[in-house]
Amino acid sequence: MRKKQGGTTYYYRDYTDDFVESVHQNETLPEGYRWVRKSPFYRLASSALYGAALVFALIYDKLVLHIRIENRKALKEARKTGCFLYGNHTQPMGDVFGPALYCFPMRMSAIASVSNLGIPVIGKLLPMLGALFIPDSMGQMKKFMEAVQYYLEKKRCIVIYPEAHVWPWCTFIRPFPVTAFRFPVLYHAPAFCMTTTYQQRKHGTKPKIVVYIDGPFWSDQSKSKREQQMELHDKIAARMEARSQASTCEYVRYQKDPDL
Length: 260
What we know:
Order of helices and strands: EHEEHEHEHEHEEHE
Strand order of the largest sheet: 2-8-7-3-6-4-5
Distance between the termini: 27 Å
Strand content: 15-25%
Number of strands: 9
Shape: globular
């Protein structure tokens, strides 16, 4: 049984509800937006900023969120190929910086909503940290897909939050689309999952956090691409659901809106 540790209850209408919104929620990408920048100056600045982000992540995750990572060694073999890492989306800041530590020494990129560009200060820096914003138009999709392939070939860990919306401190796994798994199928790359769980602490009001890494997961290439996506979806959803049972408390409770 999960104990109620916090005092907040959020009511939702469906799983696409937003509980964390940026100032400019309707941000869009310019038509000529570039996901890959190869100039030496940009790459140097990006590397320096990423290094600073790693230091921040170490401090924030360990001292503020009290995160413990279980089975990070599962990602070791992926350093040779790059990979896709799927996770439940429950920490506005932790989910931005935390995976950089989980993936280390691989560098991380993350497929993200363009609304994140509207986050004050850090929003405009996210592309330099590895954010790959989902395009607004079909005309931009080709360049976006080329960027995903480019960074995978650079042996990066590409992070995907298939639940899409941040639900802070949520202890259950929300449904996510089969299409989120097209990338490992298309590029025949290993897929992993990270499941964030919450345990009661002896001291303090907020739970401690344990993140479980699992994988690799592969699909059967003899099947159709749609069937492979479904296979990965089912494997990863099942593993994340099983891991989520490790949560022992609810800092925030989510309930279906009783007026519906």
